[in-house]
Design brief:
There is one protein chain. The chain is an alpha/beta fold. The protein folds into two domains: about 1-200, 2-enoyl-CoA Hydratase, Chain A, domain 1 (Alpha-Beta Complex), CATH 3.90.226.10; about 205-250, Lyase 2-enoyl-coa Hydratase, Chain  A, domain 2 (Orthogonal Bundle), CATH 1.10.12. It has helices spanning about 35-50, 80-95, 110-120, 145-155, 155-165, 170-175, 190-200, 205-220, 225-240, 240-250; strands at about 1-5, 10-15, 15-20, 55-60, 100-105, 110, 120-125, 130, 170, 180-185. α3 (about 110-120) packs across α4, α4 crosses α5 (about 155-165) and α8 packs antiparallel against α9 (about 225-240).
């Protein structure tokens, strides 16, 4: 089912999956202010919708997202206020989304488009797709939470190489670096990405959201804080119907059918 009211993205909902398609193919899906706002709206919609259990983000056409549309950027641009107004609200909305997010990187993800992919929990990548930092090429630092996520994914040394050398990283290399969860060929892309989204959607929703939340927190908290939070989270997960179903399935030697409740 396709949702109306969007102009720079498409929002499709089906079988527990919300698929957000960045839809400016003529501009390689480059960001505009309206797109930032629509992505925030889509994230909030998916987060609140109890039927949605996983969120996918991809691009229409040949690109995933080419980053900011530089047509409106010049020497008079105040980059600090630009980021605080345009990109920081979007990245914060993505970070607080409790549902798992899967970036379906179907083509080039450059600049803030790469940042968007990095903010996802999983990245499925076409074999010929490219990650390109690009920021340093116009005398800027990587932004839109790029320097938050990248070293957490690949480590400090590789993050510095990627940020400063700005060499394209194709599908298989992205996998080798840990940037890509899976790499798929063109002919299997639709089938494999749909299967992955379906697999994530079938997991126990509350437990997944708790893992996502405390996994991120755990990288910044002390050992004692992590132990305290994991105990609290386990209490919440243990009170779900999915936990009861999981126990029943284990004891009866069958595959669990999680309902997301």
């Amino acid at each position: 089912m396709k949702m109306e009211g969007f102009h720079t993205i498409q929002y499709k909902k089906s079988k527990g999956v919300a698929l957000i398609v960045i839809s400016r193919p003529g501009a390689f899906n480059a960001f505009t202010e309206q797109m930032n706002k629509e992505l925030i709206r889509a994230m909030k919609m998916a987060s609140k919708d109890e039927e949605i259990r996983v969120i996918g983000i991809t691009g229409e056409g040949k690109a995933f997202c080419a980053g900011e549309d530089l047509g409106g950027i010049d020497e008079n641009t105040n980059h600090e206020s630009f980021l605080r107004k345009r990109y920081h609200p979007m990245m914060k909305a993505i970070k607080v989304t409790p549902k798992p997010i899967v970036a379906l990187v179907n083509g080039t993800a450059a600049g803030a488009g790469m940042s968007l992919a990095l903010a996802a929990d999983f990245r499925l990548v076409k074999e010929n797709a490219k990650f390109v930092s690009a920021f340093i090429n116009i005398g800027l630092i990587p932004d839109s939470a790029f320097i938050y996520y990248l070293p957490r994914i690949v480590g400090y040394a590789k993050a510095m190489e990627i940020s400063l050398l700005s060499e394209p990283i194709t599908g298989q290399k992205a996998f080798d670096l840990g940037l890509a969860t899976e790499v798929y060929q063109d002919h299997e892309w639709d089938e494999k990405t749909e299967a992955f989204l379906t697999r994530i959607a079938a997991l126990p929703t509350k437990a997944v959201s708790l893992v996502k939340r405390y996994m991120v927190d755990g990288m910044n908290n002390s050992f004692e804080e992590v132990l305290n939070k994991e105990a609290q989270a386990q209490r919440i997960a243990g009170a779900t119907k999915d936990h009861i179903e999981g126990l029943s399935a284990f004891k009866n030697k069958r595959k669990p059918a999680f309902s997301g409740k």
